[in-house]
Amino acid sequence: MAGNSRVDLLDTEAMIPEEERAMQAVVRRFADETLRPVVAGHFEAGTFPVELATEFGELGLLGMHLDGYGCAGSSSLAYGLACLELEAVDSGFRSFVSVQGSLAMFSIHHFGSEEQKQEWLPRMARGEAIGCFGLTEPDHGSDPGSMRTRARRDGDDWIINGSKMWITNAPVADVATVWARTDDGVRGFLVPKGTPGFEVQEIKQKLSLRASITGALFLEDVRVPSAAMLPSAKGLRGPLSCLSEARYGIVFGSVGAARDCLETTLAYARQREQFGKSLAAFQLTQEKLADMSLELSKAMLVALRLAELKDGAGVEPAQISVGKLNNVREALQIARTCRTILGGAGITLDYPPLRHANNLESVLTYEGTSEIHTLAVGQALTGVSAYR
With contact defined as beta carbons under 8 Å apart, do 103 and 246 qualify? Predict the structure, then answer.
């Protein structure tokens, strides 16, 4: 259920300018009419409706916060609100848009050559080409600085060897941004689907993000021309800046998941009767609802503040860490608490809270675990790194 239930008593929506609010309404309508009717089936089957990619493109959602090359050039706030509405249906839809726009397209847009931009970005913005982002490795999730994937020069070409894990969109991607260690530091390479030695294996039997498609990348003596390297990315700062973009979308997206849980549960509690009165009339239920409303409103205020910073003077990585750490943690707790109010009905796909909770378990971990973001905030406060 999406809708107009008054779960945000602070009326944070009134803080959103009219233009962004109108865009949000368009995305919400698309999400409710096109995505919501099919999400339970895809979650149960463990599939993603990749055929909808061009519809995402028609709405201008792919790379929407980028300028030129067919991208919408929207504000950071508009992008965040789009992520909110998509994740209000399912994290899988927001993940698709985040990986396409904030990781794959962003890496090309900010670090690619003009030829790379012209080749890929217009098609990716239309949803006609799909990208993925190969950074995480099987043995080095939170520590990308220890990556083992390597690229070496061979004449005018590069030879890449290594593997990547937990890569959203990988099984359907037309191109992968692959990060590899070189003698000149970490560099990014565009590896198209079908390149000899480049294989993708879908990861199945997931208990979370089931309406999203995930894979592993394997590169064995993959030969790419020198023109495949992203010329402006050198060192870990390149991929980490892309991750900051994706994490920003999560700050808003997690609010959407929490809102959907609370709206659904409030409606259920009003109509479900036990002991001769509605669940909403019990003090313990009201305490849960009140606490969840407080945390939802606070999470939205955090998201709106980060959007203000991002569209203004700029947002720092530690500030994004504050948003991801708080909002995902609170959204997960809201989803779990909503499930308790739904009782037995809450374990079915007829209601979204447990599906959202399962998804948020992944969101809690990817793009930086809670522990990593806690340490990032700690370092910003103290000036001391506790990573090693």
Answer: yes
* Segment 19-58, tens digit of pLDDT: 999 999 999 999 999 999 999 999 999 999 999 999 999 9
CA 146 to chain centre: 24
pLDDT given at position 144: 84
The pLDDT score that the predictor gives to residue 142 is 81
Alpha carbon distance 278, 290 (integer Å): 16
CB 189 within 8 A of CB 178: yes
CATH numbers and ranges of domains, the chain: 12-126 (1.10.540.10), 131-228 (2.40.110.10), 237-382 (1.20.140.10)
> Which residue shows structure tokens 């959202």?
356
Is pLDDT at 4 greater than 50 in this prediction?
A: no
pTM over 0.85: yes
Amino acid 50: pLDDT: 96
Residue 143 pLDDT grade (very low, low, confident, very high; cuts 50, 70, 90): confident
Residues 6+ apart with CB under 8 A from 207: 358
Q: What is the pLDDT of residue 6?
A: 77
Distance CA 245, CA 339 (A): 31
The crossing angle, in degrees rounded to 10, of helices 91-98 and 36-45 is: 90
CA distance 358 to 365: 12
Strand stretches in 139-281, DSSP E = 150-154, 157-168, 175-182, 185-192, 198-202, 214-225, 273-274, 277-278
pLDDT more than 70, % of the chain: 99
* Those residues with Cβ within 8 angstroms of residue 157's Cβ, 6 or more apart along the chain or in another chain: 223, 224, 225, 226
Specify which residues 153 forms β-bridges with.
158
Query: Could you tell me the two tokens for 38?
Result: 């099919």
308 belongs to the catalytic site: no
Q: Whole-angstrom Cα distance, residue 25 to residue 96?
A: 20
Q: Sign of the C-alpha dihedral, residues 371, 372, 373, 375?
A: positive
Amino acid at 19: E
Catalytic residue of the set 119, 137, 263, 367: 367
- The H-or-E segment that residue 192 falls in is strand 185-192
Whose tokens are 């609100």? That residue is 81
Contact between residue 203 and residue 43 where contact means Cβ atoms under 8 Å apart = no
